[in-house]
Amino acid sequence: MDNSYVDEALTDAETAFRQTRGQTAESDLDVSTAALVQLRKACRLLEAARTLREQNGYYTVVIEASFVAVEHSIQFYLLYRGHASGEDLRYEHTEVYQQGRAANLFSKAFADCLAQLWKQNRAKVYYRETVASAEQADAMLSLADAVHRYILDYASLQYECVCS
Ligand SMILES: [Zn+2]
Hints:
This protein is mainly α. The chain has a single domain (29-160), classed as Nucleotidyltransferases  domain 2 (Four Helix Bundle (Hemerythrin (Met), subunit A), Up-down Bundle). It has helices at 5-18, 34-54, 59-80, 95-102, 108-126, 134-154. The protein is globular, with a radius of gyration of 17 Å. The relative contact order is 0.14. The mean pLDDT is 90. The site of zinc ion has 5 residues, from loops.
């Protein structure tokens, strides 16, 4: 790929992430705190997942987006309540579930179930040992939505949610 059109595309991508001045920012993410950015990312991912789900198909993307929305919702709470700083959140995907348990958002059993679900999806769907189904996409989207709403209620910050 070196010295080809791919190399050029890679350079362009690097530049896009390095020189951000004057770029078009995603709406609803221009909030004052790191915690709210995580919350709004979850809102936007859920909205994107709902939109794709209505289009019929795209189950893999809906499942992936749902998992990431769960992560962002939990990260929002951890940051909002001061259980974590920005750097603390740069860990493995499943680690956030243990952090959520430590912050008393849910039990160890619940955290372990989430981690198990994530590992199963990674192992099977992501690497195409099995193909994602409509039922899995619906179940994951419902779960991500429930986690999101629960955390908003728990933090009494429903008004910060931009989900439709
Ligand atoms: Zn929301």
